[in-house]
Amino acid sequence: MSTTSDRQAPASGKSDSGRRSSHTMRWWVLVVLGTAQLMVTLDATVVNIALPAAQHDLGFSDGSRQWVITGYALAFGSLLLLGGRLGDLFGRRTTFVTGLVGFAGASVVGGAASSFEVLVGARVAQGLFAALLAPAALSLLSVTFAQPSERPKAFGIFSALSGAGAAVGLLLGGMLTEWTSWRWVMYVNVVFAGVALLGALLLLAKPAVTERPRIDIPGTITVSAALFAIVHGFAHVESTSWTDPVSLGSLAGGVVLLAVFVWLESRVAHPLLPLRLVLDRTRGGAFLAVFVLGMGMFSIFLFLTYYLEASIGYSPIEAGLSFLPMVAGIVASSTTAPSLLLPRVGPKIVITAGFLVSASGMALLTRLTLDSTYVAHIMPGMILLGLGIGAVMTTAFQGATSGVHHEDTGVASALINTSQQVGGSISTALLTTVASSATTDYLSSHKPGALTVAQAGVEGYTATLTWGAGIFVIGAALAALLIPNRALAPSEGEPVIAH
User: Fold this and answer.
1) For labeling, which of 112, 120, 314, 410 is most exposed (least CB within 10 Å)?
2) Is the dihedral of CA 289, 132, 138, 104 positive or negative?
3) How confident is the model over 204-220, as a mean pLDDT?
4) Cβ contacts of residue 378 below 8 Å, gap of 6+?
5) For the ranges 138-142, 364-368, 369-373, which has the lowest average pLDDT?
6) Residue-wise pLDDT tens digits, 71-107
């Protein structure tokens, strides 16, 4: 992997004239970007809680229910790289604003849906506009906070919102569904989007366009089809099996198309994804860390929620509240690790240690039973998980955009989201199989009865948490082997039109 002669590295001594220079303005920009990021991340889970109510209202089947989730994931995952590159080519402010308006509009349509087909269509549209919005937000953050003195704190706050969004979505979904209507889990996005849109129009500087945009059409079509096939394949595995022909065909086709995409990108003049972005050890290791983090986090949110509600009888709101200690841990480590730990011990140590702390928290949760209490048995593991996840996320986000030229920050940011999305898709399919197998094994070896059925459910959930702990340990090993322990270079700031 190359570590030198990278054309993306910001030139030393480059003047910051004409760039975002107001200290106060930059932090208000962070508020805008953070609001948009929180909306996108919480939307990944806020709908889950409301699905049963939506199903009852619109009258669709259990078999169809997964498409409300999968439709969003397919559009989001398959179009992220294109969304990121469009931001690089046509301006991140433009794609950010377009993403906000489109996401809000799709949310209104989804909230007003009178049929299953309209709801799924709205979720697909949300995923499409999220594919524009998510990479634009992270790339705007990267080029806005190019100064080493401010960058760690800004990335820490942004990462805290990213990590906490899914847990906040569970709580918000429970509250809105129980107190109002399932439709408000869609309508609430308009509030977030409206605030972010107003701030974007007032605060985000217009970029200076210096060259005619070019889009890598063959690469775009190939990678979009590849990511669609992979996400679809794993989603299909979840509802069928690992030997299902459609699942295997989708996964195999996705892998082949990814290989073709890499071959294409090494040969075209203006690639969708310049391979230098991932061949650098710091960035490549950071992308891999985000991928592993996505795998481990999904086992927490999905199966721990099942345990809290199905095994010990928590309401949706109580289950959402149960995740708040983890949110506190994410916020605490995301906002302190960049300034306190990263300068002293380096990214390799922070990411490796973060994975190990998360693994220890997951290991504590594998001991859960039907009689477990929240304060003694659940909360300690939650706190450790939050502390570890926050440290990994904020450092990996910085590492993945380290030394990136402003023309490439959009696609680099998109690759972060893609890594997390594909990691989550893989783990959801894998761990659903693990849970099902563990539950079946327990039922087949114990005397039938209500208690046996309840305990079998716990066996399935704790099996997934055991695998999650193992995934985090693998992440620690990969970080220790791949990521160099040197200071993270900032991205280059973005030229803007002077007012």
Assistant:
1) 112
2) negative
3) 73
4) 308, 322, 365, 368, 372
5) 138-142
6) 888 899 889 889 988 888 888 899 999 999 999 999 9
**Any idea what the Cα angle at residue 478 is, between residues 475 and 480, rounded to 5°?**
110
For residues 177-200, average pLDDT: 93
Spatial distance between the Cα atoms of 175 and 339, rounded to a whole number of angstroms: 35
Tokens for 460? 């399935």
The distance from CA 381 to its chain's CA centroid, rounded to whole angstroms, is 21
Structure tokens at 381: 């593991």
Please tell me the number of Cα atoms within 13 Å of 399 on its side-chain side: 35
> Measured at the alpha carbon of residue 51, what is the angle toward residues 377 and 242, in degrees to the nearest 5?
75
The mean pLDDT of 203-224, rounded to a whole number, is 78
Contacts of range 214-218, beta carbons closer than 8 Å, 24 or more positions apart? 214/89, 214/270, 215/85, 215/86, 215/89, 215/270, 215/272, 216/85, 216/264, 216/265, 216/268, 216/270, 216/271, 216/272, 218/264, 218/268
- To which CATH superfamily is domain 23-215+272-482 assigned? MFS general substrate transporter like domains (1.20.1250.20)
3-state SS, 136-173, equals: HHHHHHHHHCCCCCCHHHHHHHHHHHHHHHHHHHHHHH
Angstrom distance (rounded) from CA 244 to CA 260: 24
Q: Which candidate, 348, 388, 341, places its Cα nearest to that of 364?
A: 388
For the segment 7-21, what is each residue's pLDDT rounded down to a tens digit?
A: 444 433 343 434 445
Q: Give the DSSP letter of residue 449.
A: S
Mean pLDDT score across all residues of the chain: 86
Q: Which residues pair with 496 in a beta bridge?
A: 207
Contact indicator for 400, 290 with CB cutoff of 8 Å: yes
